[in-house]
Amino acid sequence: MSKVLLDMSMSLDGFVAGPNGEDGGLHDWFFSPAGAEAVDESVRNTGAILIGRRTYDQGDRLGGFAHSPYAVEHFVLTHGAPERPARGEMRFTFVTDGIESAVERAKVAAGERNVAVGGGASIAQQCLKAGLVDEIQVHLVPALLGRGIRLFEHLGDGKIGLETTRVVDAPGVTHLMYRVVEEG
Ligand SMILES: NC(=O)c1ccc[n+]([C@@H]2O[C@H](COP(=O)([O-])OP(=O)(O)OC[C@H]3O[C@@H](n4cnc5c(N)ncnc54)[C@H](OP(=O)(O)O)[C@@H]3O)[C@@H](O)[C@H]2O)c1
Fold first, then answer.
1. Is the shortest distance between the CB of 140 and ligand 1 below 6 Å?
2. What residue ranges in the chain does DSSP mark as E strands?
3. Cα 9 to ligand 1 centroid, rounded to whole Å
4. Assessment of whether the complete model's pTM goes beyond 0.90
5. Is the preceding peptide bond at 120 cis, omega within 30 degrees of 0?
6. CB–CB of 106/48 below 8 Å?
7. Could you give the CA distance from residue 152 to residue 100 in angstroms, rounded to a whole number?
8. What atom of ligand 1 comes closest to residue 79's alpha carbon?
9. DSSP category for residue 14
10. Residue 184: pLDDT band by 50, 70, 90 thresholds?
11. Taking CA 40 as the corner, what is the angle to CA 57 and CA 73, rounded to the nearest 5 degrees?
12. Strands, E assignment, 24-159
């Protein structure tokens, strides 16, 4: 059955990007031979991807997601669709009526496969806060960025309980998988 999986790379001190969206080396593992198994598994299991408008704009600026192996529909949460079409071959759907609607639409597109909440931080936080996430996969990168965009903040006051379901250590990254077990 389709699950909603928050799936992001994070530095040891909790950032998903530098202050101005710099990559900070957080995706080096993704493009290295050592990351191939994890990437292949993710591509096989992912039926749709949900991202925020800043992540979309950055990807579009950097070449239209041409480097991405995920040939599935990307849902972009935004207050208004861009005026010009996206660069490249990737399929994008712009959703302007909120996070629940974006997740619902992504689930329909994903079918039996997962919806990957691929960032940025704002989208991930809204999904967590609204109780829409079934699993979290953090690709923990051994670097201390010192400052930047934090993943786990603005989540409200309630505890979100997690069960560790998998830990895979690889060169330059540790893949941590959690199931969300309780909220409130
Ligand atoms: N480490 C990783 O795995 C990873 C993965 C992906 C991205 N990133 C990084 O994350 C950074 C971006 O993260 P971010 O948190 O700043 O931004 P984001 O989540 O990508 O996008 C935020 C934007 O999405 C739109 N939005 C958000 N919630 C909305 C809502 N409820 N309704 C309508 N529109 C909404 C707004 O844009 P508008 O008002 O303009 O429409 C908002 O400014 C980038 O630097 C990117 O490189 C890292």
1. no
2. 4-11, 15-17, 46-52, 74-77, 92-95, 114-119, 135-141, 149-150, 160-170, 173-183
3. 15
4. yes
5. yes
6. yes
7. 19
8. 41
9. S
10. low
11. 40
12. 46-52, 74-77, 92-95, 114-119, 135-141, 149-150
Could you tell me the CATH superfamily of domain 4-46+121-183? Dihydrofolate Reductase, subunit A (3.40.430.10)
Q: Which residue has the tokens 């079918």?
A: 111
- Joined tokens for residue 15: 């950032």
Contact 77, 50 (CB under 8 A): yes
Over the stretch 117-139, which tens digit does the pLDDT of each residue have? 998 999 999 999 999 999 999 99
CB of 68 closer than 6 angstroms to any ligand 1 atom = no
Identity (one letter) of the amino acid at 42? S
What residue type is assigned to position 70 of the chain?
Answer: Y
How does the average pLDDT of the chain come out, rounded? 95
Is ligand 1 within 6 A of the CB of residue 98? yes
Domain ranges of the chain: 4-46+121-183
